[in-house]
Design a protein that fits this description.
With 132 residues, the protein is mainly alpha-helical. The protein is 55% helix and 6% strand.
Length: 132
């Protein structure tokens, strides 16, 4: 069972993409404090990445205090006192950049992009059937 959603894209290191997906899952609450995190072997198998890359990802996330290693239990999501300043903005910036690049590539004017984003935002606020 894969806990992380990663759409691998060319031109960016696999390590960076997996770290980004993990931090996004922590910040969004998809992965909760105390929840087990996959072992290096399981992470490598689930994402079909080299075990050395999976090890590097886990060690980086431990070093950055997103994960903690508990003897006899394994690696778990660490308690986060508060959202770290800039984490949400930094995560969103990368996805917005991809959206803008794709919009420019297909020739969508900025005004149309903004209108589409606003429309999507409003539809998520009202929910299915136009209800809040």
């Amino acid at each position: 069972m894969t806990l992380l959603r990663v759409e691998f894209r060319p031109g960016q290191s696999i390590f960076e993409q997996v770290v980004f997906a993990a931090i996004k899952a922590f910040v969004s609450g998809e992965l909760q404090p105390g929840q087990p995190f996959p072992s290096v072997r399981a992470l490598a198998a689930d994402l079909k990445i080299h075990p050395n890359t999976a090890h590097k990802v886990v060690q980086h996330l431990i070093q950055e205090r997103w994960l903690e290693s508990r003897p006899g239990i394994g690696t778990v999501v660490a308690e986060q006192p508060d959202a770290r300043p800039g984490d949400r903005r930094r995560l969103l910036k990368q996805q917005v950049e991809q959206l803008v690049v794709e919009a420019k590539r297909v020739g969508v004017p900025l005004e149309d992009l903004i209108d589409t984003v606003q429309s999507q935002w409003r539809s998520l606020e009202t929910g299915p059937g136009g209800r809040k």
